Amino acid sequence: MRVLVAEDDVRLADLLDESLSEAGWDVEVVHDGRTAYERLLAGTEYDVALLDWMLPGKDGLSVARQLRGLGLVTPILMLTARGEVRDRIEGLDAGADDYLPKPFDLDELLARLRALYRRNSLTGLAPVQVGDLVVDPGARRVTRAGEEVTLSAREFDILFLLATHAGQVVSRLSILDEVWDGETDLRSNVIDVHLAAIRAKIDRPFGTRTITTLRGVGYRLDPPDPHP
Distance between CA atoms of 19 and 130, rounded to whole angstroms? Predict the structure, then answer.
């Protein structure tokens, strides 16, 4: 797992270098936006780019916007002291995949990087089909009976996990580990909330039952069973 860290605060950059390296990342650090832009544009294969917004030479927002304009799809996590909602929207609209305001918790940063890496690693995988339900990890696209279904990022990740284990029971712990990197408490109802939303989108409009809850065990996705 290779990450480019662009941070002009040398002390923070050193901390990120050390922490990410200890977590198993291959880290390259630069201290200005122009160098970050050139490294990313040069075709060096990074799994994720970690950009500070207020970089000298070329700010992180400009780096993200220009790279996206050229078709570069490397996942970008933006770091910034600007935590207002409008700033987050501006960063995401510029092409950042995620946004983390300073000061931040290192464990949360690592979890977000893992999530971006995991999503990016799905690119190129073949679509998974279960009955008339098709889950395409590369395009992050879901269709049922040829009709596109819009899911949130978390909903997609849960559905893809269930689809790749179709006919098998997937435990709550497995979902938490794969989708939330274990950061959510097992006692939380967050999985149930997301599954309810998924069912409302992939089953209810089509009159099917696809996901079965086995209480105390987990969840199973089967080919659609029309309501009687």
Answer: 41
User: What CATH number has the domain bearing residue 10?
Assistant: 3.40.50.2300
Specify the residue for token string 């990120």: 16
pTM of this prediction exceeds 0.70 = no
Residues 61 and 154 in one domain: no
Instruction: Let me know if residue 123 belongs to a domain.
Output: no
71-97: average pLDDT: 83
Residue-range definition of the domain harbouring residue 94: 2-117
The string of pLDDT tens digits covering residues 193-204 is 889 999 999 999
Q: Based on the domain organization, do 112 and 6 belong to the same domain?
A: yes
- Of 45-59, 108-122, 191-205, which gets the smallest average pLDDT? 108-122
